[in-house]
Design brief:
The chain is an alpha/beta fold. The protein has one domain (about 1-25, about 40-230): Beta-carbonic Anhydrase, Chain A. Helix content is about 50%, strand content about 10%. The protein has a five-stranded mixed beta sheet, with helices on both faces. The longest helix has 22 residues, at about 1-25. Belongs to the beta-class carbonic anhydrase family. Catalyzes the reversible hydration of carbon dioxide to form bicarbonate. This is Carbonic anhydrase. InterPro entries: Carbonic_anhydrase, Carbonic_anhydrase_sf.
């Protein structure tokens, strides 16, 4: 954790330098464009409201204009961190109707938790004080589909993709022993839950969860209907 703190301090110092340089030319305005979100419940509610706006075709595109862009140049205060898939069909800011500075998004195929992903989320917790981390799996995920194939006896895809598949394999094997729905959907949801549980084992993240200042949830996004839901288990 000493290494994480040192790296975070360096990043925070860079952020401070940026503020000093930018403030000479940018207006000193508040970076808040909505009531402040500080609790896990408030963060979950805002993601839900944003997705509802998206589903109804009533998006307001909060904080997506020039003024907001200039405001967040002074510093960022995202209300949630998202660990999502790199799939081009899952742009989290759009499907939850958020804007500049609202979400700290980490995207990687299969929404897995590797060292870089964990480090990024540790930074979001320790230095940006996000009250919520959401791990978002999505329908028809190709990375999970590859892992399901390997779990069923198929060959590894090869190259660096093997590392991604190996992260997902435990969830794919678990899904094979479960009932209800199709195998791929079960595996996608189990993989999101698996990544959530891996994050909860991290001492820094677990400590904030224990204090009640942070919540870590798994979620599922359906490509066809655009619905973003938090998984119960």
């Amino acid at each position: 954790m000493a290494g994480v703190a040192a790296a975070g301090a360096a990043l925070a110092a860079c952020s401070t330098d940026d503020k000093t340089t930018t403030s000479a030319t940018a207006p000193q305005t508040s970076i808040a464009h909505r009531p402040e979100i500080t609790t896990p419940a408030e963060a979950r509610a805002e993601l839900r409201r944003g997705n509802e706006r998206y589903l109804k075709g009533q998006m307001v595109h909060p904080g997506a204009d020039e003024q907001r862009r200039v405001e967040v140049a002074l510093g960022q205060e995202p209300f949630a961190a998202i660990l999502g898939c790199a799939d081009s069909r899952v742009p989290v800011e759009i499907l939850t109707d958020q804007g500049f500075g609202d979400l700290f998004v980490v995207r990687v195929a299969g929404n897995i938790v590797g060292k870089s992903e964990l480090g990024s989320l540790q930074f979001a917790v320790e230095h940006l004080h996000v009250p919520l981390i959401a791990v978002v799996g999505h329908a028809k995920c190709g990375a999970v589909d590859a892992a399901v194939g390997v779990a069923g006896g198929g060959a590894m895809p090869g190259g660096a993709v093997d590392d991604i598949v190996n992260h997902i394999l435990p969830a794919a094997r678990k899904a094979k022993g479960e009932q209800g729905g199709d195998l791929l959907t079960r595996a996608i949801k189990d993989n999101a839950i698996q990544s959530r549980d891996q994050l909860l084992k991290d001492p820094l993240i677990a400590g904030e969860v224990k204090k009640g200042t942070l919540e870590v949830v798994a979620a599922y996004y359906t490509l066809e209907d655009g619905r973003f839901v938090v998984l119960d288990n």
